[in-house]
Amino acid sequence: MTNGHELTPSKLDQIDHAILSLLHDNGRISYTDIGKEVGISRVAVQMRINAMVENGIIEKFTAVINPVKIGKTVSAFFNIDVEPKHLEEVAELLANEAAISSLYHMTGPSKLHMHGIFADNHEMEQFLTNKLYAIQGVVSVDCQMLIKRYKSRMGMKL
How far apart are CA 105 and CA 124, in angstroms? Predict the structure, then answer.
């Protein structure tokens, strides 16, 4: 699998899918424990994971931080209309903002959808007033605050 062969979705087998599922549930699980779960050696697990990393199937390993536990209690979603000629520069500016957890270009020529996490309403208001509204090319902003989270997607669940 790692001998220069490119992994594609059609080349992922049942064991690869099981490994991805285990990693999704616990990114700190050991190669040995994965091997026991899927019935292959630790070395084979390591080779498969390395191949999935090399082929971009696994983008990165990370910690999922609970924002409330670190004092970030306001979660909001924004739909932003942008002048088409400013779309890329606006997206780049917003992508570099620490409060922004996700940013997407949606259907329509110049619509951005983003999620932000803030300590409180005042911090969100300051972000809107001093940063978002001040960006050249932003035409309008629709903001919706999260009331309750039922499910959050952290990567792809198989």
Answer: 21
